[in-house]
Design a protein that fits this description.
Elements: E1 2-8, H1 13-28, E2 32-38, H2 41-46, E3 54-57, E4 60-64, H3 70-82
Parallel strand pairs: 1-2
Antiparallel strand pairs: 1-3, 3-4
Helix pairs in contact: 1-3
C-alpha cells in the first residue's frame, strides 16, 4: 500500500529539508510513499494552511511551519499505513 504525503510549500528551504527527511525515513522503513509537492497559493488556500511548510498525510494536515524529527515522521507514516 502506498501512502500519499503532500508538502505544501516544498519550494522553501525548510520544505526541501522536510521532503528529504520524508524520503530518507520512508526508505529506512521500506514503505512506499508518494510525495506530492504543492507550491501554489491556491494549495495553501485549499488546505487552509497559514504557515509553510505544511505536511499533509492522506489529506489530513499533520503540521504547519515546522520540521518534524525523523522519529515523528516515521511514527506518522507507520500509523497511517497500518490504519
Amino acid at each position: 500500500m502506498c501512502i500519499e504525503i503532500k508538502i505544501i510549500g516544498s519550494n522553501c528551504s525548510t520544505g526541501k529539508r522536510l521532503k528529504n527527511m520524508i524520503e530518507r525515513v520512508s526508505k529506512s522503513i521500506h514503505k512506499d510513499v508518494l510525495i506530492r509537492e504543492l507550491n501554489h497559493a491556491n494549495d495553501r488556500k485549499n488546505y487552509n494552511v497559514s504557515m509553510i511548510p505544511a505536511l499533509v498525510i492522506e489529506d489530513k494536515i499533520i503540521s504547519q511551519g515546522k520540521i518534524l524529527s525523523d522519529k515523528e515522521i516515521k511514527k506518522l507514516i507507520v500509523s497511517n499505513v497500518t490504519n
